[in-house]
Amino acid sequence: MKRLMGLALAAAMLGGAAQAEVTDKSAAGFEVTESATIAATPAKVWDGLMHPARWWNPKHSWSGEAKNLYFDPSGCFCERLKRGAVRHMTIVYNDGATAMRLNGALGPLQFTGASGHMGVTLKPAAGGTDVVLTYDVGGYAKGGLAETWAAPVDMVLGEQLARLKKTVETGKPD
After folding, report:
1. Mean pLDDT for each 10-residue chunk of the chain (174 residues)?
2. DSSP assignment of 118-165, as one string?
3. Least buried of 40, 117, 126, 128, by fewest C-beta within 10 Å?
4. Is 0.85 surpassed by the pTM of this model?
5. Mean pLDDT rounded to a whole number for the chain
6. How far is CA 171 from the centre of its chain?
C-alpha cells in the first residue's frame, strides 16, 4: 500500500500530468477515464501511442523493462519475457489514426476473474491533440473490483498517459 501511495504522489507531481478519475463504480466493476491535451499533431501522438516501449513505465511491466512492450500485427499488446510472453490486451478495433479499442486484464487483474475494455480516442484540439482513455473493468475479484482495484488502476493509467504526453512532447518519458 505504501508503494501505491508513493506512486500516486509521484504521478501527481509529474509536470503536465493527465487528468484522471474513477468515473463509475459498482459491485460489478468500475470505469476510469484519463485525459490529456498533448502539444503535437494527432499523427505524432498516434505514432507515440503505438510504441509503448518508448513511454510505458517499466515498473508496471512483468519483465521490468519497457523495451519488451509492443503492439503486433495480430492485435496483441504484448510483452516479451526471458522465457515466454504476456498478452496484456487484444486490439479489437484500430482505425490507424484516431481510435483504438482493446480487451483484456492489465497487470495483476490477470490473477482475477476480471476483464476490461479500453478505448483510446484522439481528436485535434487547440494547441495539439486531446487524448481520452477509458477502461471499463468487470467480473470477479476477491475483495471486490471497485474497492480493491479502481484507485490503483486509475493511478497507473493516469501515469502512463502522462508519460505518453511527455514522451511525445519532449522525446523522454521522465
Report:
1. 36 52 93 98 98 97 97 94 97 96 96 97 97 98 92 96 98 92
2. EEEEEEEETTEEEEEEEEEEEEE-TT-HHHHHHHHHHHHHHHHHHHHH
3. 126
4. yes
5. 90
6. 18
- List Cβ neighbours of 161 (8 Å cut-off, separation of 6 or more): 18, 20, 34, 35, 36, 131, 133
* pLDDT tens column, 30-45: 999 999 999 999 999 9
How far CA 78 is from CA of 16, 61, 146, in Å, comes to 28, 10, 26
Q: What is the DSSP string of the chain?
A: -HHHHHHHHHHHHSTTPPEEEEEEEETTEEEEEEEEEESS-HHHHHHHHT-GGGTS-GGGSSSS-GGGEEE-TTSEEEEEETTEEEEEEEEEEE-SSSEEEEES--GGGGGTEEEEEEEEEEEEETTEEEEEEEEEEEEE-TT-HHHHHHHHHHHHHHHHHHHHHHHHHHS---
pLDDT at 20: 84
